[in-house]
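Work package 3, deliverable 3.1, input record:
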Amino acid sequence: MRVPCPSCHSFVTVALVLDALVLGSSGCVDDAGGDSGPPPAEPPPSTANLLVDADHDGEVAAADDAVEDEQRATFLANVDDDNGDGQRDRQDRTLNPLDEDMTEVVVQRVRGLKDARVFVAVSPRQAVERTRLWQGDRVVTGAQAERGEVEGAGDDDVVLRLEAMTGRTADWDGVVTLTLTVEAGEGDDTTVVSTDVVQLRAAPVLFPDNLQPPRRLFVVDIPRGEDHNRALMAALRTTPGLPSGVEIYAADGDAYFFDRWIQDSWELGTQVVPGKAGPREMTTALQLERNYGGQGLDAFVPGEWLGADRGFFYPGGAPSSHNYGGNLEVSPPTTLHPFGRLLYGGGTSTLSGARNVDTMNEKQVAFLNAQEVQGPAVELSSEWLSVGHIDEVFQFVPDRDGGGAHQFVVVIASPALARASLLAAQQAGRGDAVVFAGRAASYTADQILAAPNFLALNEAAQARIDSIQTELQTALGLHEDVFRAVPVLYEEADSDGLVVAFNPGIQNLVTVGDRLFVPDPEGPELDGQDVWQQATRAALADTGLDVVFVDVFASYHELFGEAHCGTNLERAPWTMLDDPSTAWWNVIDE
Amino acid sequence: MNSARRPLAVLLALALSPPLTAAPTSPAALASSSSSRSSTVGTTSWPPLSGLQPAVYLRKRNHDPDVTADLRALPAERRVDVALALLAAPARALPLADDDAYPAGLDDKDRARLRRLEVRAARTGALLVLGDSDDPRALPALLRAVAGDADRADANRADADRADADHVTALAAERLGQQRHVPGVTAALQRVAVDAARSDAVRAGACAGLGRHRGRFAEAALDALVGIAADKQTPDNVVVAALQATANLGSSWAWQADGDVARGAALRAQARAALSVARDDEPLVVAAARRATLRRLR
């Protein structure tokens, strides 16, 4: 049995005796000093023994005892709504017997207990405040009591259930230490007869990247009005549509005060722990700080989406559009980052050099970094954009044909390429070719190429994008060849000196398996071909992906967003893939 | 034409005058006294400005009110009329949304914030339109705004916090730079950019204006920017803005658009030479901006 040494705080082996705790002669006993070999079939009398699923096989059994000092068991935060009462289960005051999101902790029968009593204590303080330990429908420990008595442990094994109110947070690494003691006597005469200590750790929320298999696509259905999105809905619902097996979840636009930016109010991730029949997952949303007065899609997660095995965290924090989901992306795995790396946007200056400090709020960033496995999150410059999201600049998509240095490529906006296309049209004698043909405001290539301030702004945007690419290469260890430029120009969005995509932002696409739903850039046509579409297809030609251009001009683009902004994807988490070695508990060095 | 030119000459003369210490001789005061348009405010009927309506701007991804598109949709002369009126009108006279137009769930604080942004959007949208305009009324209006718009009622100012006021003034300075063939604009912007009594935001706006001054006086604008960047008294924020503005001033894409590739190349060469020597005590943020600028000036 091993407990923390009171002097050196490392785990030490403790000889189990009836009347005293006896340390080795040096105080600490190393791993080779005892407790080796298989656990005894039955512990000695009055021995405290706690069992948790330390070997991660989904079951609590005697075999766990052998590894509990080297490995922590895992647990979920109970933030879904199994009983359908409209609130997260952690808020329930009584036990829901059907709730499977608690973690079994077994107190082995304490033989020869007689007058002795068994207690369990939780530490550290953060864990006390964020967990409850149930015995049946009785709360043994919780915010009001860090220590409680385990009843009936002298008669039989007792199953306790650990319930976590939160997962890993900025001020808690998610580690729970449980200390079981067998005590004899009363008051000042109390003697600790035996002790056992185990540790568990909260599952991180793992956010998927665009390479992971899609399960469900969320979109807000807006069938009416000048800015209806019927074209996008049709593209998703009719051939070729979504790949087979991917559901569409169409939220009712009327219910959310015109709010269509379903990418922005939440980021979908997953908590996963080992289970008996394979990994057990809880799809877990990060509810982002986005104040719509409770009438926009800020109401979607708590009001419509919350349910059994669908939970959420809400760190809160200061308002800024930099908090939104379009400003939070996950790179696919790289050598340096086996679970990918979290990326968000922010910074300090506009393209004109004016000071503009804006970024994701501290609470959200702290939450992301507390998950550890995909961090630390990297801030890339996005404060020069009116909306301020990194999905206005780049997007990761799979490289199915695998010809590149990675399993993915980065589709990145390129004003230089867009301008070059226009110059090529002009040089071919087609300076009259029209951008945004048929729209209320359309321009010829000649007109665009004769707008000095517009072009100076785009040259500055290109310089900023180049710096972002450099940052990405450094942060993720990417090869330069992985970047695929697509033609996107920017224009001033408003008076703040901030910019927004001039043409529908091609990189703001939706990746659903091998199919990309790409904003139609509505570029100039040469020989019946949209040159910006052609450039996009050329950039992605060797990836093996199916490119579907979608009209998002009035429905999203003119409202400062594109296809990615108007959708959200639920994807299979890592540990549901074929290779169990990819489970976070097998990869992360605890 | 003459009546439009005359106040402009007065304004520019004042902008070029030595540093001012007394309000009566400030550019703002003269701008105010020379204005002949403020009387039109009370009689202006507002066109539909949907960008100020919550039901419209809250649909946008950034949720920011913005009247620029509404103004640009108007005929040119009417556009300038409305822009001038938006600048001159007290906040209470602007065509803002009724209280019941906001989502019911918003609290008073959020509603007040949106209202404040609407006022700011009305002012700044007007400045964007005026900056793009060659209407003779645009220049004096921009100069008045750069001067701090002292002719506007104090009650106006109370509607916006200091940052908003600076924002409007900075934007006016930036857009003033687009009046790129008007003598005296360079010096006017330079005076604002070096004026320690102005906020860094406004001084940075003036630098940005110099960066847009890619016309007859581009070389003078470059000299001004180089001087601002080299001056050890210049705050780091303003130095960064001056460096960025230099890159914009030398933009090869812009000079090509203007059909004067050779002059642009000469200007960039001159800028590279001037900026290639860093200050001894240069902070990291300035050094980074200098490197970025030199890259863009290749």
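Confidence is low (pLDDT under 50) at residues 1-43, 149-160 of chain B.
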